Amino acid sequence: MGKGNPHRHGARHHSDNHVDYRPANRFNAEPNRPQEQPPLKEQNVTIEDKTFKVQLRTNERGPFVKLIETHINHNRRNHLIVPKCGAASLAQAILAVLNDGPAAGAEPTETVTA
Asked: How far is CA 78 from CA 9, 12, 51, 53, 72, in A?
């Protein structure tokens, strides 16, 4: 048997031929991206087969709320980042929708700017 196609999934990599081009740290992948600090506050909520982390964080741009949705069975994550100045408005909009608020497709009634 030969060595096979080195580009095929599952092919063996030989340490003398393999070069890893990935950045050493995922936070250093984009030089203009603000560095995240550890969360100032954090709460977890589990609903059905999903876990939601709600974190208060800060970076060079200022404080923000980071929502992380993790699907338990698939190890998939989705992130939503909202500036702290708009988090209360977002929470109010969610509550309004849940409590028979504006109809679907309605124009937003408030715009928050930093």
From this structure: 26, 32, 11, 11, 12
Question: Hey, where are the domains in the chain?
Answer: 35-98
* Half-sphere exposure in the Cβ direction for 55 (13 Å, CA): 17
pLDDT in tens, 43-89: 999 999 899 999 999 988 899 999 999 988 877 889 999 999 999 99
Q: pTM for this structure?
A: 0.58
CATH of range 35-98; options 3.60.40.10, 3.40.50.10950, 3.10.450.700, 2.40.110.10:
3.10.450.700
